Amino acid sequence: METLIVAGGEIDKQILENYIKEHTNLNIIAVDNGLEALFELNIVPNHVVGDFDSVNTNILQTFKNNSNVIFHKYNPEKDNTDTDIALNLAIELNSSNITIIGALGKRIDHALANIHILKISLDKGIPCQIFDKYNRIYLINNTISLYKGKIYGKYISLIPLSTNVDGLTLKGFKYPLENYSLSIGTSLGVSNEIVENVATIELKSGILIVIESKDDS
């Protein structure tokens, strides 16, 4: 089953509503004040995770009154973020793939942490993406193909998560590479574009952050 995690960052409610309409049989996990976005859209989650220190108490009580919603309450002074806990819960629920909405926003520390915890899912072999109005973000550690008509935006950025990504070969891109070693601390992989119908990203070792993005237009 596919799992949607609604985190507590900035949420475009139209994006969230459309995503839920387009994906049937979703398992929905609300993270802390991500619950408020679901409340406004009249959507009931399956699970709620967090310390609930930033959630409207009336909204919180409304969902607590629903016996179909399972609450997982944690102390605010914990080692892991709420989104981290939600991701591990999604894995425990045997999710086939995971999408996180509301993982980005004003807090760059939370945004960076949310990108890094995608490795938890990668290590388990479960596809996981962060999704918002402008970006689709995921990690890869092996070869993938991208189809020009199906990517989320015009730009493809590749940023090392590991210290080095070795044997990186890009085919079908405006800026190709051949057996390149891409090291952390460089911007070389930012804002590439697909120029063929199908493009491939090949790598021999390491982990890449892949960001499919678009501008306002």
Summary of the model, kept short:
With 217 residues, this protein is an alpha/beta fold.
Description:
The protein has two domains: 132 residues, Rossmann fold (3-Layer(aba) Sandwich); 74 residues, Sandwich (Jelly Rolls), CATH 2.60.120. The model has no long low-confidence stretch (mean pLDDT 93). β1, α1 and β2 form a beta-alpha-beta unit. By secondary structure, it is an alpha/beta fold. Helix content is 24%, strand content 33%. It is built from six helices and 14 strands. The chain is elongated. A ten-stranded mixed β-sheet has the order 4-3-2-1-5-6-7-14-9-12, sandwiched between helices. A four-stranded antiparallel β-sheet has the order 8-13-10-11, with no helix packed on it. The relative contact order is 0.15.
Which characteristics define this entry?
Rossmann fold; 6 helices; Jelly Rolls; elongated; ten-stranded mixed sheet; 14 strands; alpha/beta
CATH homologous superfamily identity of the largest domain: Thiamin pyrophosphokinase, catalytic domain
What's the alpha carbon Rg, rounded to whole Å? 18 Å
- Side by side, the strands of the main sheet go 4-3-2-1-5-6-7-14-9-12
* Strands, total number: 14
At CATH level 2, the architecture of the largest domain is: 3-Layer(aba) Sandwich
Sketch the topology as an H/E string, one letter per element.
EHEHEHEHEHHEEEEEEEEE
Described by the principal axes of the CA atoms, the overall outline is elongated
